[in-house]
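Changelog entry

Holo records now carry the ligand SMILES as an explicit input line rather than a separate metadata file. Below, a converted record for adenosine-5'-triphosphate, shown in the new format.
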Amino acid sequence: MTALTITPGASRTLKNHVGLAQTVRNSFSMAGRGLIKMRRTPEQLIDVTVQPIIFTLMFTYIFGGAIAGSVADYLPLLIPGILVQTVVTTSVVTGVQLREDMDKGVFDRFKSLPIARIAPLAGALLADTVRYAIATTLTFAMGFVLGYRPEGGLGAVVLAGLLVIVCSWAISWIFAFFGVIARSAASVQGISFLVLFPLTFLSNAFVPVDTLPAFLQWFVNVNPVSHLVTAVRDLANTATFGGDAWISLLGAAVIVAVFAPLTVRAYMKKA
Amino acid sequence: MTHSSDWAVEAHGLVKVFGDNRAVDGVDLSVRTGTVYGVLGPNGAGKTTTIRMLATLLKPDGGDATVFGHDIRREPQIVRQLIGVTGQYASVDETLSATENLMLFSRLNGLSRADARRKSTELLEEFGLSEAATRPLKKFSGGMRRRLDLAASLISQPPLIFLDEPTTGLDPRTRSQMWDTIRRLVATGSTVLLTTQYLDEADQLADRIAVIDRGIVVAEGTAGELKASVGTSSLLLRLADAGSLERARHAILDVLGVESVLTPEAGRITAPMSDPDSVTDLLIRLRADGIAIEELSVQQPTLDEVFLALTGHPADDDAAPAPGDAAAGASGAAPTPELETAR
Ligand SMILES: Nc1ncnc2c1ncn2[C@@H]1O[C@H](COP(=O)(O)OP(=O)(O)OP(=O)(O)O)[C@@H](O)[C@H]1O
Ligand SMILES: [Mg+2]
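Structure line, unchanged by the conversion:
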């Protein structure tokens, strides 16, 4: 055997709670697992590679032409909108994959280990930021190909990308919650899109707000996704980190503060 | 009052209800530190459910339990630091290789990267998985998966190890390897709680055995005590002519001094025997009575017979009493506890 004697249970020093440092460590170990899985099954990255390309092309030519008549003039308006919409949409997959993952036997072992309860969830969500990074990069790259030249400069564009990734990570907690409570992966997708569509389409992502009827304008203006879109536009086009960016970060923090505990509680209850 | 370190597990009246199915219906278990405890029972008896509750994977609906004195409800995180769990179904990550699995679980157990690497190599070596270490688990055989699963449970060198049907589905050679591993674990000071459907496995490994059926512990004791309650061996008799069944049972009562049991498959008689030698006397008597036999054997009691003797119904009997069940119960071979669990 690996050791000649086992330390008896009665003479071990043990504690019944998990500290913050251990929680972070456990979550990163779990994220490492997520990355290995991603490497093993690259076909799961299809959505974050194909979607940005298709969406960017499609929305640019559909909306760009219809709204402004000129595609080039509206790229600075459209690309940030498409970026937010695309990346937030890919965060739905996080919930779906979590549902599939949780049904596997290995989650039994995670539950029997003395680790932070949140780690298997937080780790999966953390690993998925890689997916968002891929989608973000591809969307900006597509924009560049179509002729988008962000005035804010490279640094501001990178910052804008990071802002989108952070906010999408926060939003993915909503879908993770659905993933934990739903019965099947298909139903996660169903509920998630019900939430996702109003959030992304009833925003200023594709159309100027003043073209909308008054009652919609109200929703669009309070919609956190609108603030995120504005924040990305400000950053990418004028290199300003303004009020909308702060509101987006605050919104992200609120979502995590509400949905992370809800999700962990649901996860622990579902024995 | 004994010291808490004497007992690895103490459970009182554990209950788990799924819908209106009382899967575990008041189970008491006491497992002494440093021993192997076997939980023996047929499919659906509640073995897995009991283990899952003790391993903090499932919240009990009633009763309480402690692991080395720590309450499984109030101090689950402490309990998790004291146990290793190898479930009935492999709980390793299919998409990762064996090394990656062990590395992940080592890191989660708080080992540094270097220590985790050393531990993984060590365990792979020990469980004969070194050659397959980097292969994806999808290509592993059932036995390899089980071994990896057990290896993963031993990373933290837990003083208490739960093994849920560790040898089900293994070939005889792999099974005896698993038995050796379990014996070595105990030699290093671990306590093992295992479940099994095989009496001989419990017999080989366990210091004490609890027989569980429909969520209730129907018998508890050493393998010897358990077998004594059925007789040390068992006689199986099949007659050429079903018409002489009653006369044959009479002869058994006369010669062996025990009540025999008519098993559900008509025409088969089983009887507990304390002295296998007395079968000679029985054969002479049967010849004298002119009862022709088709088959006769003397064997170790099977799980089925233990069940028949302890519960009055066969192990694979379902909720509705089988036709033969009444006969078996009526024969009174053993006390027949009330079993009215709805399934
Ligand atoms: N999650 C669950 N939901 C509903 N019923 C369950 C659940 N888990 C187990 N059961 C039921 O509880 C009873 C006991 O199941 P359990 O898995 O504990 O039996 P077991 O002794 O381990 O059987 P086996 O030898 O087949 O593994 C069975 O009737 C089973 O159908
Ligand atoms: Mg089981």
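Spot-checked after migration. The radius of gyration of chain B is 23 Å. Residues 318-343 of chain B have pLDDT under 50 and may be disordered.
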